[in-house]
């Protein structure tokens, strides 16, 4: 996508496509850290973050999307390596989320996968509507 296209909002009142890409990197990075905490601590309480404020930060609004795409590629390679090493019991390990309560890593993995598809659909939906 061009810079102008990346600066388009996927819907009125929504983020620019650029912000969506950076948000995905932020969210997946937080997810990976939460997995590592759940593997190395007993039912850790995880910290949330202000997603909207992160998206409005200068890197969320202005950074080249290639930075977050590179981060996602590397992060997903690490996460895949970790997940492929899991015994079934490790998917049952948990962390405690302030709003969602206790989540198993299996449930969290499904949630992060859905979240990625959800935001990717925002991008592809706008591309289809605009004929890009």
Main features:
single chain; 132 residues; mainly alpha; Four Helix Bundle (Hemerythrin (Met), subunit A); two-stranded antiparallel sheet; 7 helices; 67% helix; elongated
Order of helices and strands: HHHHHHEEH
How many beta strands in the DSSP annotation?
A: 2
Shape: elongated
Widest β-sheet, arrangement of strands: 1-2
**What gap, in angstroms, lies between the N and C termini?**
8 Å
**Structural class estimated from helices and strands:** mainly alpha
Low-confidence stretches: none
The CATH architecture term is Up-down Bundle
Number of contiguous helices:
7
Portion in beta strands: 5-15%
Helix content: 55-70%
Write out the CATH superfamily name: dinb family like domain
CATH class: Mainly Alpha
- CA-based gyration radius: 16 Å
Sheet of most strands: 2 strands, antiparallel
Q: Which whole number gives the mean pLDDT? A: 98
Domain module tally: 1
CATH topology: Four Helix Bundle (Hemerythrin (Met), subunit A)
């Amino acid at each position: 996508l061009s810079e102008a296209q990346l600066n388009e909002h996927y819907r009125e009142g929504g983020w620019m496509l650029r912000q969506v890409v950076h948000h995905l990197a932020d969210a997946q990075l937080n997810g990976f850290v939460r997995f590592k905490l759940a593997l190395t601590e007993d039912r850790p309480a995880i910290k949330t973050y202000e997603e909207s404020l992160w998206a409005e930060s200068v890197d969320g609004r202005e950074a080249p999307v290639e930075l977050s795409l590179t981060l996602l590629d590397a992060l997903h390679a690490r996460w895949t390596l970790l997940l492929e090493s899991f015994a079934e019991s490790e998917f049952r390990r948990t962390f405690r989320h302030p709003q969602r309560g206790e989540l198993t890593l299996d449930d969290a993995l499904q949630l992060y996968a859905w979240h990625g598809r959800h935001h990717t659909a925002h991008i592809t939906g706008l591309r289809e509507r605009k004929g890009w």
